[in-house]
Design goal:
Rossmann fold, Alpha-Beta Plaits, five-stranded parallel sheet, two-stranded antiparallel ribbon, 10 helices, binds flavin mononucleotide, binds iron/sulfur cluster
Length: 267
Amino acid sequence: MTTIIYSFTGTGNTLVVARQLADALGDTTIIPITRAMKDAPLPPEAETADALGIAFPVHYVDMPKIVQEFVRGLQIHGNPYIFGVATCGGSPGGALYNLDTLLKAKGVHLSLGAAIRMPENFIGPMNLMEPVEQVGGILATARDRIPEIADAIREKRECPPEGSNSTPYRVLASFFKFLITSVYGTTRHLHATDRCNRCGICARICPTENITVTDSAVAWGSACTWCYACIHWCPQEAVEIGGRTKGRRRYHHPDVTVADILEQRGG
Ligand SMILES: Cc1cc2nc3c(=O)[nH]c(=O)nc-3n(C[C@H](O)[C@H](O)[C@H](O)COP(=O)(O)O)c2cc1C
Ligand code: SF4
Ligand code: SF4
C-alpha cells in the first residue's frame, strides 16, 4: 500500500508523529503542507496513493487556519482511503470532525481520525505547557499508539473521529478563541525583545511569511496562523507575547531541528 501524508507543524510534534506513522506503514511519502501550498512540484505518488493522510496540530480545538485552507484547495485523485492525525496538548475538540466536514464538501470523507496527545506548546497569553519532567512520558505514550493506528490504516478501517463535536463544547471553544485572539489580540502582542540579534530565523520559519526582519526591527503582520513556531524556535528566546511569556520555558520536539522546520517551509 502506498501512502501520502500531508503534514503541518509548528514545533515538530506533528512532524515526528507523521514520521513515526510513515515508518510503521512503509512506502509512505510525507509532503509538508507549506511546500505543497507554494506549488512545489508534488511527487507522482500524490496522484496514485492508496491512502492519504492529513496531519496537523490542534489549534483552538480546531484545525489550524492554514490547514483548513490547504484542504479546501486539495485535489484528491482516485479513491484513496483518507485519514487524519491531530496532535494536541489535551483535547482535539471538533478538529477532526471539521476535517471530515471539509472533505465531505469535496465528495469524500474521513475514514479514520486519530488524536494523539503530545507535549503542549501553548505558551501564552496563558501558559498551558506541562512541567518539563512530564514531556518524556507524554512522548513515550504517544509513540506507543502508532502501531495501533498504522494497523487500522493498513486494514482501511472505518473509525469515527476522536474528540468531541458537541454543541456546548463548540460554543465554549469559539468563545475562548475569540477572547484570546480578538479581545486580547495575541498577534498584536508578538514582539522581539532586545535579546534579538536579527538572525532572521523567525522570518524564515514562519509558515505564512508574516515576519519581516530588518537591521533595526522585527515586525509581525496580520497573517498569523498561530503556530507559535517563531516563539519556540527563536534561538535567543527573544520572541514574546506582550509580557506574558517572559521567563517561560520554550519547547520544540527533541528530535526536530531548525533545519527540519526550514526544510518543511521550502528551505
Ligand atoms: C494557538 C494554539 C492553540 C492550541 N489549541 C489547542 C487545543 O485547543 N487543544 C489542545 O489539546 N492543544 C492545543 N494546542 C497545543 C498543540 O495542539 C500541541 O502542542 C501540538 O502537538 C503542537 O504540534 P506541533 O508541534 O506540530 O505544532 C494549541 C497550541 C497552540 C499554539
Ligand atoms: S529568531 Fe529571534 S533572534 Fe532571530 S531575528 Fe527572530 S526574534 Fe531575532
Ligand atoms: S507569526 Fe509566528 S505564530 Fe504566527 S504564523 Fe508566523 S511563526 Fe507562526
